[in-house]
Amino acid sequence: MNNILIIDDTVANLEVLASALKKAEREPRYEPRCVKTGKMALRAIAQHLPDLILLDIKMPGMDGYEVCRRLKADERTRDIPIIFLSAMGEIQDKTQAFTAGGVDYITKPFQIEEVLARVETHLTLQHQKRQLQEANAQLARFNEQLELLVAERTEQLKKAYRNLEQLDRAKSEFIQVIAHELRTPLTVVRGYAQLMGNRTGDDKAIAGGIVSGANRMHAIVNDMLDMARIDAGAMQICTDDCVPLSSICQKLVQEFTPALQERKLTMTTEPGSVILQADPDLAYKLFYHLVMNAIKYTPDGGAISVRGQVIEDEDMAEIVVADTGIGIDPEFHELIFEKFYQTGEVSVHSSGQTKFKGGGPGLGLAIVRGIVLAHNGRVWVESQGYDEAKCPGSKFHVLLPIGTVQDN
Ligand code: ADP
Q1: Which of 390, 362, 354, 398 has its CA nearest to residue 265?
Q2: What is the pTM for the complete model shown?
Q3: What is the spatial distance between Cα 245 and Cα 258, in angstroms, rounded to a whole number?
Q4: pLDDT tens digit string along 165-205?
Q5: Which residue from 220, 256, 288, 296 has its CB within 8 A of the most atoms of ligand 1, so it is best to mutate?
Q6: Residues with Cβ within 6 A of ligand 1?
């Protein structure tokens, strides 16, 4: 039922309107209530909230405007639609009716069809307004729940991330401890093997084997320690130092000549006039790993190059280590810089340090990145893809700050 309150001091009006509303054929039906004064109206409304009000303007005592103002001032009655009834139909009246908060205005003598049509329209509007308010409230509740859920999930993710960080730290510390523990006995083994190597005959050959094995293990242990230091942010760097790229290249040639000859690879170095503002030991280590990889992933007969040039505007130098090797799938261009990351099957890797595809522990490029970042530089790889038959090659680009060598 739609409860409609009619307020008019003329009884005849009340009767006509009430009977028309009662007779109206619609669902839900109208249930009219009639009162003659403003005061009675307020009492009737307080007892039972109507769905719509038909309100006469001119009444003795409290007039229609005043009733309307009071209803609009009360939160409980504010939204009830009020249609004003007036005998005069003057412009002034209409304006005042809308200003007071009425939704519509009907002039007397009224046409019943018009009254019914206006009542119907405003009840429908009111119904739609309520539906909209309910939908909005539901949306707000849903949003609130969603926000709670997101906050909960974010907290869970943060927790999982903290756990992962802790695990990663524990792993790094474990690696560091193991590497330290291994280093001392390895040095002893290497020392004794070197002593044995001073003898002649079979002993010398056996000792040579032990020394090279121990050297390899030493290199891996050192890589593990470097990685642990990078992870802990404890890499000690001396960035005040400057080092010419040419001297790094010289050392690289010296270090890798035997491997290059064995693998029938050529290595060209063009350091240009590049002077790096970098820790000399770490800068060497960085290029050592890049050249070592270039050797490992280039088939016999291939070519390797190390080229440097200064980028004046940026106070940086770009050094490119290029090879004619098997290349790297673009999918892995970022991942290969993660520690322990290796592409390809570990089981098919050859174990020799500079053998073709001789897999290592997957630390080389992570150390390279750690060193480059510690110098505020950048490193990235360029390669068309992985193809052992066509060998598209790889180019590792390194950007490092430049410096000047002081003359003493
Ligand atoms: P690893 O000890 O396996 O060499 P790295 O961190 O040095 O570890 O390299 C990670 C992976 O990146 C390697 O396993 C290899 O698959 C790929 N890679 C690195 N350098 C090259 C290169 N020059 N050519 C082709 N693949 C490379």
Answers
A1: 354
A2: 0.64
A3: 21
A4: 888 888 888 888 888 888 888 888 888 888 887 877 777 87
A5: 296
A6: 293-294, 297, 323, 325-326, 328, 336, 341-344, 359-366, 394
